Amino acid sequence: MAIPKCPHCAGTQFELQDETIVGAAFTLTVIRCASCGAPAGVLENQNVSQALTVQSEKISALHGLLSDLQQQVSVLVAATVKPPKAPREKKPAAPKLVAAKA
Ligand SMILES: [Zn+2]
């Protein structure tokens, strides 16, 4: 495997340095030559994969909370909302008792 070399001084040791660059929205991490300081590359300071993992965990936690909340609301709605009254049915008239003729 080829050993990376600094394009400026041919140094083979590199280091990371957080840099605030004018106009950049966030701090960048510069890979620079440990001997002369020439930049060899730039990384995003924040690890996007790690940030996505954290966000995914937060979304999962929110999903669980939302499910619990939805269930609690369903229980409350069921306890407070009365079903609509069914229309009254007319009861059939009780049969009239007729005295039997003797
Ligand atoms: Zn160098």
Number of domains: 2
What would you say the CATH architecture of the largest domain is?
A: Single Sheet
Q: Which regions contain 5 or more consecutive residues with pLDDT less than 50?
A: none
In what range is the share of β-strand residues? 15-25%
Q: Summarize model confidence as the mean pLDDT.
A: 88
* Spatial strand arrangement across the major sheet: 1-2-3
Name of the top-level CATH class of the largest domain: Mainly Beta
CATH topology of the largest domain: N-terminal domain of TfIIb
Helix proportion: 25-40%
DSSP helical segment count? 1
The helix/strand class is alpha+beta
Order of helices and strands: EEEH
User: Which molecules are bound in this entry?
Assistant: zinc ion
User: Which geometry do the CA atoms define?
Assistant: rod-shaped
Report the span from N to C terminus: 124 Å
> Rg, please?
39 Å
Strands, total number: 3
